[in-house]
Amino acid sequence: MELSLIGYDPAGAWIKNEQTVDGLLRHRNPAGLTWINMSGFDNTAEVNRLAEIFRIHPLTVEDILDTNHRPKVEEFDDYLFVVLKSIGTEGHEGELDLEQIALVITENTVISFQEKSGDFFDGLRKRILNNAGRIRRMGAVYLAWAVMDAVVDRYFVFLDAIGTGIEEFEERAVDEKDQNIIPDIQRLKQNLLRIRRVVWPLRESIQTMGRLDSDRIPVELAPFFKDLHDNVVQAADSVETYRELIAGVIEVNLSAVSNRMNNVMKVLTIISTIFIPLTFIVGVYGMNFKFMPELEFPPAYPITWAVMILIAIGMLIFFKIRRWL
Amino acid sequence: MELSLIGYDPAGAWIKNEQTVDGLLRHRNPAGLTWINMSGFDNTAEVNRLAEIFRIHPLTVEDILDTNHRPKVEEFDDYLFVVLKSIGTEGHEGELDLEQIALVITENTVISFQEKSGDFFDGLRKRILNNAGRIRRMGAVYLAWAVMDAVVDRYFVFLDAIGTGIEEFEERAVDEKDQNIIPDIQRLKQNLLRIRRVVWPLRESIQTMGRLDSDRIPVELAPFFKDLHDNVVQAADSVETYRELIAGVIEVNLSAVSNRMNNVMKVLTIISTIFIPLTFIVGVYGMNFKFMPELEFPPAYPITWAVMILIAIGMLIFFKIRRWL
Amino acid sequence: MELSLIGYDPAGAWIKNEQTVDGLLRHRNPAGLTWINMSGFDNTAEVNRLAEIFRIHPLTVEDILDTNHRPKVEEFDDYLFVVLKSIGTEGHEGELDLEQIALVITENTVISFQEKSGDFFDGLRKRILNNAGRIRRMGAVYLAWAVMDAVVDRYFVFLDAIGTGIEEFEERAVDEKDQNIIPDIQRLKQNLLRIRRVVWPLRESIQTMGRLDSDRIPVELAPFFKDLHDNVVQAADSVETYRELIAGVIEVNLSAVSNRMNNVMKVLTIISTIFIPLTFIVGVYGMNFKFMPELEFPPAYPITWAVMILIAIGMLIFFKIRRWL
Amino acid sequence: MELSLIGYDPAGAWIKNEQTVDGLLRHRNPAGLTWINMSGFDNTAEVNRLAEIFRIHPLTVEDILDTNHRPKVEEFDDYLFVVLKSIGTEGHEGELDLEQIALVITENTVISFQEKSGDFFDGLRKRILNNAGRIRRMGAVYLAWAVMDAVVDRYFVFLDAIGTGIEEFEERAVDEKDQNIIPDIQRLKQNLLRIRRVVWPLRESIQTMGRLDSDRIPVELAPFFKDLHDNVVQAADSVETYRELIAGVIEVNLSAVSNRMNNVMKVLTIISTIFIPLTFIVGVYGMNFKFMPELEFPPAYPITWAVMILIAIGMLIFFKIRRWL
Amino acid sequence: MELSLIGYDPAGAWIKNEQTVDGLLRHRNPAGLTWINMSGFDNTAEVNRLAEIFRIHPLTVEDILDTNHRPKVEEFDDYLFVVLKSIGTEGHEGELDLEQIALVITENTVISFQEKSGDFFDGLRKRILNNAGRIRRMGAVYLAWAVMDAVVDRYFVFLDAIGTGIEEFEERAVDEKDQNIIPDIQRLKQNLLRIRRVVWPLRESIQTMGRLDSDRIPVELAPFFKDLHDNVVQAADSVETYRELIAGVIEVNLSAVSNRMNNVMKVLTIISTIFIPLTFIVGVYGMNFKFMPELEFPPAYPITWAVMILIAIGMLIFFKIRRWL
Known about the structure:
Five copies of one chain form a homopentamer. By secondary structure, chain A is of the alpha+beta class. Chain A has two domains: 2-256, Beta Polymerase, domain 2 (2-Layer Sandwich); 257-321, Magnesium transport protein CorA, transmembrane region (Methane Monooxygenase Hydroxylase, Chain G, domain 1, Up-down Bundle). Chain A has helices at 21-25, 44-53, 58-65, 122-129, 140-173, 182-210, 222-284, 293-296, 300-321, and strands at residues 2-9, 12-18, 33-39, 72-75, 80-89, 96-105, 109-114. The first copy, chain A, has a seven-stranded mixed beta sheet with strand order 2-1-3-7-6-5-4, with helices on both faces. In chain A, helix 7 (222-284) runs antiparallel to helix 9. Chains C and D meet through helix 3, helix 6, helix 7, helix 8 and helix 9 of C and helix 7 of D.
């Protein structure tokens, strides 16, 4: 578990790390804004301590600790509760890893709960400490928006990676060397499904948020949430387009594989078919009948060769006409 | 049929089993809360007796006794009527078994009707008797919520089992040994369909319930029903994701099977194709023509071998270039 | 055309059959309730006579006579008009047969128009005549509900038959003997489609009906229409589940057929492949070259056999390792 | 371009054809009802003249002249504008042909614009001239309804033809002679798609129309538009059912074709497989080794025959047991 | 970056190109209407200058510069902001190229931002300068409508090209020469997907726009936006129809390819099958047994030929009866 606090007021900004919630909160200036971030939930006592101080509903605490939640937004008397998912990668095979991020937004404090400690918010922290952009001039909801915006921006990194992956598969799909790319494509598709599970409910949640009372979301922030909503809709849109593209790649690949197989089988079968009658003919003159007039006839051997060559050529022409070659 | 009653009031909690409804109701304290559970409906007389005492509508009684109902919520003047399904397993082949649970929720009594007797509610009973959690401080609707929550929690056990099953199939799908896993996958899919039939209508029902008048559902319980609704939505979500994963596994398996088959056929056909012209050549020199000059020519035999070996090597090279090997 | 009238009032109940509408209506007691049933529309004059007496709109008459209508509910000033479909079987191949039933519900009369004469309503008639159940205590709308309920109940008979049929196909799908079950499954599926065409619009219609003004549908009947709606929704639900099950059965069957075919082809191809090199070898020593040292060498024949057996065993081992056997 | 006018008032009805709009309008009785029909738009000047007289919005004129519009209903201050499509056939291969029909409905005039001249409205014209049915007693909106009803009625002619076509394909799908019916089925499906493009948006349009103010659509006409809507919904319904039936026919055909192919390949492969070991055996005794004891052994030849027959029978039995025959 | 300004007032119209925004705005007549067009965003300073002058929200500026946005409409206090996509082609392989066009619509100014400089608006410019049509009589919203209409009109050019492409594929799908058209079809389908991504969200946006307050969209312009919406809906409609047609083409092609392959394999297999028993027979009489009575029998050779010919004919007849030929 890691605990950090960023506070800022007109006079300045400061960042602190502590082992306990109580220690951390000593750095808070109630007149300014405070952003508390907790990573990892191995110490539920500290979560409960936070809940106590900020009067967080027991169901919210349960939702924070259960990291299998769908993205959602809930209004409580004292705070807004937001669950969303950030996306990361796990080492082996580029499998996507979903991490839950929960936000409790009170009047002048944002508490973020991260499932694992990560470096998501480094950029945001710097902007606060350097007083870059609008961030230090605006309230807690704007800070929460900035956190959510940082999470959503990361989605596009992974969507772009999938887009690039699909383009690679488009080439591999018609490549003769690649034997079976379907399992690899399915892995890509599973990643896409994971992103979809994250993006779709978020779309609704942010829309809900944008429609909250102006007590909750100040009027001047509405365009920001609309913009965030647009981004999530666009992510959802890309997911759907990629699904269709993947379906197309699979179709192309199946047709390419079956086409190649057909060609192999056809040529090989044609070779067999040409030799089968010829082998029959040489078999005929390998028979040991006493009375076979052809055997005694001197030019029979070259004539046989001529006939066989004519048959072979005739069959090749026939196959050509029928477009089997 | 089993009949049990759990009653509790500020003074304490008690549990009783009786053979008849009238016997059972003697243990009721009308000032406290009462939970009556009936398992098995072989004795409809007792169901009717309950209906009479609690003024249950004849259509509700029909719905209780007909165990093929979809989950639903209905408001009556004197009570709320909830039908939902719990999931269990039947011995052979892990087939899922759906059991109907009906709840009649009056002001200070919850009556639950179970299709079969089971041990679903043991945990809940213990919590009441031990006065653990919120349960003894709150009213009948909270008790009903706790019953429904226990049922919904069990869904995830089976969903997780299906998730594990899908992962196993993902490995089997590309395993050369497994001949035909489609029938097994279909069995998994049927279980998933069964869960879906349970979960989807429940989603609506609980949403309906969360929107009932505050006379019916006290305001402070709204977050609990919202939480329950979230759980059911998440279950429905998992069902849909699993359906997509299963479709992916089937696609991978079909492509793996056809790939393997293609490889077998290709190699075998290539072997045939190489030997067919060679067999033709040896047939030629097996002919019995009197006048075949090659036959008398001493080095003809080794030359024939050399030619045949060259043809074989040439074909192998050709196949290699064409990437058929 | 068959015409019958069932009338009942506090004093009793009576049933009459007549050839003409005017004859029939003499048996009516305007103070009680009347149920007029007409089967077969070969005599449109009598339909028009009924329309005249009960002031039925010309469009309603057209709808009654055109038996290809979708289920619907329409409000007119003097009556409610309901169209629904009952399901029957036609002799050959168990094809489902849809029969249109139209109801005109006035204040104290229900007129039902059946496309063909059938024995649908026998049970209902008996209940009225025997004064069984609620039916004689309640009004025309309840009577109409009872008619609709009888029709909907029959749906489940056919749905259950389809469910049983699907289970049979699940076994046949993996049965080696059954060559091609797809056409039979498609027939089942067409029956299912027929039921769906009946059930889906009915769902909406009954919902509409349940929401009509309390002038039309007395408040105490609302639960009955809700119950009927639940039944229709459940039927629609079963239809969807059966569609998915059928899709699963087809998938299993296709994979079983292709698996079996693959096995046949594989074993047969392997047999050919083993003998082809052997046949080449025996061909070599069937050549008639004068100078073939092996031919003179006494142990050559047994050695050749030994080599051929070794080749065959080697290929079998190779196939085994490659898991082609 | 053809121009015709049908006028009627309490005194009578008359029909006139003229070359110009101005000529035509001289036959109009402003106190009665007028139906102007224009077929073919080669003379846009006349269209513009009509637009000027009836104050038709320039966008409406554009919509009338652009014959690629989707069905729609638009309210303007002075008139209702309706676009719908009628279906016809073009000579070759029974391809469906969509013709646009635009209606401008003013208080006492209906103007219909047909893309091509056709005989759609002959029946309607006769009914007006003969004063048959309600048509001469009612206003312009009823006349427009009658025109739309005539158009929609024609849809069913083509839907029925498609239904019959599907039944034919159901037989051809399992017929051994028919090699590849898929392209023909696809042509049927394209016709169905064309009808769907016409029917779906019309459904909405007519619903919109039925909900217009009673200034626009008199209350007593509401049932007529509801009836028309029912018809269109039923057409849409049939389209969907036919799509599913076509999908079923294709599935049946694919399974029948692959089944037949499998049977051919199986029998042929089995024949080869039986003869391959036998050919090997006769090859063995065609070898020219000096020292082959069997060759000298008198009963060797009949024994060889016996062995070969036994092998063949053994293989047939094996195939029978394995159900490959 | 290219900057141009078109201004017009009752007195006349003028067009100017400048390098800087400030230079450009000197040509503006605030009493008339001004259309500013900026192509290419390499100089963000000028974009920001425009934003400053017209009080454009920072989020809008971000949206203008980020050219990956979905079509949308946003209301701000001082202006309407519209994003849409125009379609062009890129040289190689006819791939579609989407260009973003952003419009800022203030009371008397329209600012259009084009991603790349193109000749889209040449027709529109001429109409303004020549005072053709309604354009100079109406306000800024009408000008914006004209810009959007020009963009949407171009969609149909590409949709028609796709329609033509599909018709070509319909022929190629059943053409024996074409080996594998699936990858080409998929390319067409990807273009279709691109258009869909553009058209679908635009549909919503224009609907939103048509429903804006009459302060924003003057009442007399409502039919124009309705017409534009109709066009976009029709484009969306065509996209869906083309998707279905493409699916049909693929199905036809797959069945044609598999049909052709089946025919090839069947004929070739039949040839093999006929010769295999014959080859066995000639093998029998090639055996070197000392005691084979047939060998000594003079007419044995012609009899063997007769038997072989009979077998071949018999097999052909059998194949014919079984319809394998």
